[in-house]
# Entry
Amino acid sequence: MSLASPAFKPADLPGFAFDWALVDVETSGLVPRNDRVLSVAVVTLGPDGEQTGEFSTLLNPGCDPGPVHIHGLTAERLRDAPTFDQVAGRIGGLLQGRVLVAHNAQFDYDFLAHEFARARMRLPVDRRLCTLALNRRVDPPTDDLKLGTLAAHYGVPQTRAHDALDDTRVLAGILRASLREAARLDLPLPLVACPPRQDPRFAPNPPRTPCAFRNPGRLTGSGPLVQGMKVAVTGDTRTSRAELVGRAVAAGLNMMASVSGHTSVLVTNDPSARSAKARRARAEGVPLVDEPTFLRLLEDVRPGTPHGEPGDAAPPPADAPATTAGPDRARVAVSAPGRVSVPSPRTSGQDDATSPAPSVSEEATAEAPRAPRTVRRAGGSRGPLSGRRVLVLGGTHPEAVAARTRIVELGGAAAVNLSASVTDVVLLAGSDADRRMRRVTSLAFPTHPAAWLDAPDVPRRPSGRRTTTHVLPRGGVIDIPSPSGPAQTPRWTVTASWAQQAACEIDVVAFVVDEDEQVSNDEDFVFYGAPENPGGTVRLHCDGPTEQTISIDLAALPPSARGVVLAAAIDGSPRFGHVGAVHISAGPGTSAAPLVHATLDAATTERTMLLTEVYRRGPLWRLRTVGQGYDHGLAALARGYGVDIAD
# Structure
């Protein structure tokens, strides 16, 4: 069967001609470390788009097959199938030397990596391409980016959904069409370099039971210890470290691997110790006790205040001045023209409503989420540019910032990259030097001078999507929709994207914070080296050199988690003023059309930036765009949330 398309000749497109291995897996669950692959299909294509190989098989996972109602694979059907280690060599041969392609590629890649590791083999993949990420760049006019939706949009027949081989053949057609669109728009492919996933550093830690109690503060005088206190240990101990930690956790204490300004006490038998923990404790004024004293105090730990009970700090009034949490997070002076100050992040439930919420249209179904409520916005999404996506080219950084700010004020979405959804292009001085200008001209995108933004007169243009999107300014807040039917709250995803960079890399990180805006444990800092917190409730997805996604399982976050703060950090000498705008999109699930858009671009000299926060407000969750930058690096930012990053 040939999968080549007469209209698509990848060998004629520089940067698009690869040997491809298209993959789809059906699994017993969603967690690669715990769940198993039930079926796998691989279709290989050459640089000319012709099929060069195909393999598919059911697999005996040796466990419960999970949601049979989704994949249809019962234990009886799988009983006589081979185990993964019996076919790993053949699968590895098809993957070797090729770019792995999948829809939501990190999911398939992670499952294969863990299966190869169980078989004591290396997953032979050096690069992968996610067709979901590619289509986020292309941005076709579809309601969502699910495989079936894209298949219908691109005219690819689909006969058996959730059948691995059929899904892979459908994926081949979507890949061809998506590459064709990317070439038309001159979009670089979001290829991801793949680390050696058999390395145990990349496996998530076993789930840790969160401390059930609020941090009551520091140990005073001779005690007592109170449940919820954050305790760290440094140096040698006569009691085994595992036993010491186990006894403390059983007593209701929160054992930490590092020291911050919120640490209650540091246990050490050497008060003059020069360890990093001891130095930090002395700098922060954290009390030190020796092991015998700590063991004595463990015999009488006083009751603490559970998370969420009335002992929680009362939220400040809506007009209270905002403060910046964390001893190391000094506010950066505002210097850029047109830059505005925003309140520091809040996760304690402060009510940030300043005006009545507008009514929002809703296409309600029994399973659909309720439409979000915009709590605060500037300009709004019903201005003359409502429904339009405007790209700004050229100009100085302050001029481009001012133009994008004006676009949002007029109800439009400020684009960062050229895509199929761009409706207008504003040309500032020097725009002719932008590499995208050639495509803008050849594809006849409507272009306008800067003065057009003073009073744009445009015909209303349907976007082709039925999903309502909200354009938020810096500091804008929106209620995250909750299910209106029996379906569980989906994972909420926040994607940050930026223009292709040559001089630096950008890392997106997340902090799962408590009511003190501190991580409850070090594993609640999610970053490239630890892309998932222990419970898997917060995950980092690296989808290419210009975008990264944080997904959050809101329903599974423990009561101690009052919010998730997302930030970006530059790895290199440039600053965010050189990077330019960072675009934020957010919505339920990985394939849904975004419900929220925001553009954060007021930074100048900053090396780190708080992007958004997702936080509890009573029974609701809210998303707030932040856009606050800091001149210091990621290590200093992390310390403000109670995490020490090793050099």
Observations:
- Residues 1-7, 311-371, 374-380 have pLDDT under 50 and may be disordered.
